[in-house]
Amino acid sequence: MARLLYRLGFGAHRRRLVVVLLWLLVLGGTAFGAVTLSGPTSGSFSIPGQESTTALDKISDEFGAGGGATARVVVQAPDGQQVTSPENAAKLAGLVQELSTLPGVTSATNPLDPRAPTVNADQDVAYSTVTYEAAVGEVTEAQRTALFDATRHVSGLTVEATGEATQAPPHVGGPAEVIGVVIALLVLAVTYGSLVLAGMNLLTASVGVGIGALGVTIATGFMDLQSTTPILAAMLGLAVGIDYALFIINRYRQELRRGRDVGDAIGTAVGTAGSAVVTAGLTVVIALAGLAVVGIPFLTQMGVAAALTIVVAVLVAVTLVPAVLGYLGRRVLPRKERDAPAGDVVGAEPREGGFFGGWIGAVTRNRVVALLLAVLGLGAIAVPVLSMETTLVAAPPADSSQARAERLLADGFGEGFNGPLVVLFEGDDAAATAASTVETIQGAGDIALVTPPVPNADGTAAMLTVIPQSGPATQATEQLVTDLRERLADVDGATTYVTGATAVSVDVAVALDEAMPIYLALVVGLALVLLVLVFRSILVPLVGVLGFLLTIGASLGATVAVFQWGWLADAVNLDGTGPLLSLTPILMVGILFGLAMDYQIFLVSRMHEAHHHGKPPLAAIHTGFRQAAPVVVAAALIMFSVFAGFVPAGEGPMKSIAFALAIGILFDAFVVRMVLVPAALALLGEKAWWLPKWLRRLPTLDVEGAALEEDRGELVDAGR
């Protein structure tokens, strides 16, 4: 692989204009496609074949439900008044009239319609259901703005709006995200000592993430993608794109300092650091694409979309980056080093002392203490995982109209009104069967109200609504779903289904719990095989994977402490506490595992390279650490900045996911890879690089470029 990548890098340098123009053409093409072919994204999560999803499909078929997106406009009368008083009723009628004439609205119900009133028992809260012609996810920003403007025109009444039609799709590129990119640029500038080179690194990464994210946007025109998918792809693509370019540029500068000419230095950088980039990228792709084995369509889409963005980032790193480096030449070095005699440049080899020399010296001298502190520290931070709660029922921001509307509905109609459960009956006399089970349903407990059954046109199906006493994201309501299914499992004369937002959340959680062991076994197993091929060792990959388990535990523990317990909530601009998104644990495993193995490969490969060249184990650890640690630190700080940029202004579940990724990167890079791994390798000594004889026949993935030294002359001549 090193030889192939050497030729690829050298060729990109020789034909740099063609390479740059091709990438710009691809970027322009995907931008055009995104503008002309993109479609709406979805904010709902469901799994085909699950009881809750099957019931929703049947209800749509048998009752004609579905169609346009809806919103609830909630009205509350002043203290001591009722919405049914003549004065307030007139205001309410005027509001309904205005709502029905809003852009895109097909109908707005009257809360005081005697045929179907939607007023609470105290008659101080009512709501109108506003239906749009556009489907869910297709309501425009102008239509949402018009709706919220209408709620502000009623004097004397409190009016708020909620519902699927009021939810704007999450966006990328806000001020907080820009701050994260600016911090990444500053880290690059300090690392390189050059703002121009830092800008070049960021620019090439932006090309890759632009193509990846725009490609995902194009896909929305052909399939139903989750609204978080483009954001996840952009966030990961930008982070790894910057890091992968950093590794290659850093190695290129080292090769120039050793006296190589520009073309040879570029080829060598791509053949060595590029090999590590390809291998590291492959581990990330394995982890993300492996989400497909879970069998959950929306999770598969998220994983594949993010994996394809990583593939683009790798291709950019090994083609576009060397092409641009060909234009910069020796200007990537500080001015005082550019004109120094070949091979006589300071910095070709790492210094014995310095900060990183002191760091690795302290870790290896106190290896037992360092190892214990790392394990116990991460273990302590992981403790909150034991109380982790998850759900798919996301609460709106605390200061939003949606949150205020849901609070009004909860106060007026009960906590469970915002998360009703629907029971569907199918049978020859479904309505009568449903009516006969009302008493059984009410016996489940935690139920505020059971509505009379509503039959379909031919009487073969009926549905009734169960209003829980507890809110939709509570454990009590989740338990109610399970209890109802058990009570209705043996109903004579009908087939029953329990659905609703909480029921969907329960079904998805069960599916994820069942899939997690399979996913872990597949991803960890494939990655272990890959790392054995890279390091020709059994224990080094095992140490890396065990360290990753500590990373996952600590990052999830910290996320639970902040987002569920409320610790340091102000630091992340948190509106309110609550359960984590059900997808968070499995996404964390997939994404962080790939990124953790990135750092494992970049750091330990330099140790392996030093050991391969004859250094004893402890000296190899010191040499490899001093060579790789500075760039790994810079890469981790950049990735942390990018992820952290999505936290303060993050929307919905992306805030907690971005926080978990950011804190996970810090734990993995600075505790696991720079303390735990070198301490463990120092304890193992020569045994760390042991490989059983029966495995020595496996092919070798040469990420250190050992083959390049043997065939350098031939490769340089062939490239020219």
Tell me about this structure.
One of its GO terms (cellular component) is plasma membrane. Its main location: membrane. Belongs to the resistance-nodulation-cell division (RND) (TC 2.A.6) family. MmpL subfamily. Keywords: Cell membrane, Membrane, Transmembrane, Transmembrane helix. This is RND superfamily putative drug exporter. With 720 residues, the chain is α+β, with helices and mostly antiparallel strands. It folds into four domains: 1-41 and 187-341, Multidrug efflux transporter AcrB transmembrane domain (Multidrug efflux transporter AcrB transmembrane fold), CATH 1.20.1640.10; 62-166, 2-Layer Sandwich (Alpha-Beta Plaits); 352-400 and 517-698, Multidrug efflux transporter AcrB transmembrane domain (Multidrug efflux transporter AcrB transmembrane fold, Up-down Bundle); 420-499, Multidrug efflux transporter AcrB pore domain like (Alpha-Beta Plaits, 2-Layer Sandwich). 61% of the residues lie in helices and 7% in strands. The protein contains 24 helices and eleven strands. The strands form three sheets. Strands 6, 7, 8, 9 and 10 form a five-stranded antiparallel beta sheet that branches. Strands 2-3-1-4 form a four-stranded antiparallel beta sheet, sandwiched between helices. The protein has a two-stranded parallel ribbon with strand order 5-11. The longest helix has 35 residues, at 501-535.
- Strand tally, please? 11
Number of domains: 4
The helix/strand class is alpha+beta
Name the shape in a single word: elongated
Strand content: 5-15%
The level 1 CATH classification of the largest domain is Mainly Alpha
> What is the averaged pLDDT score?
84
Uncertain parts: 342-348
Count up the helices.
24
Sheet bearing the most strands, described? Answer: 5 strands, antiparallel
Rg, Å, rounded:
30 Å
Question: CATH superfamily assignment of the largest domain?
Answer: Multidrug efflux transporter AcrB transmembrane domain
Alpha-carbon distance between the two ends = 20 Å
The CATH topology name of the largest domain reads Multidrug efflux transporter AcrB transmembrane fold
| CATH architecture level-2 label of the largest domain | Up-down Bundle
Helix content: 55-70%
Subcellular location: Cell membrane
Protein name: RND superfamily putative drug exporter
Keywords: Cell membrane, Membrane, Transmembrane, Transmembrane helix
InterPro entries: MMPL_dom, Mycobact_MmpL, SSD
